Fold this protein.
Amino acid sequence: MEKMSEEELLILEKGTVSCEDFEGLLGELVEGELSPTVAEKLHHHCEECQECHDGYELYEQVIDIARLIGKERQKEPSAMPDEVKKRLHQRLNASLGLRLS
Ligand SMILES: [Zn+2]
């Protein structure tokens, strides 16, 4: 049995993904922390919603950069430094009107 967060369970219950749901789970999605079923639903939303698609691509790019930096420093490759994450969120919030924290 997969372990799911409350947000994930909510999406499964509703069966649909709103932009708000997408924003809330964007970080987990890009970092591969979601259950496959929920990830699939989010990707589906992404295909239909340009705004969320842009947000996803931007986030993904920054994560890739963060991973490269992590590798160079020989740290845990998937860990994004808090400071980088914070700045990314601020940038996404400002450019896309998101409310990531
Ligand atoms: Zn959307």
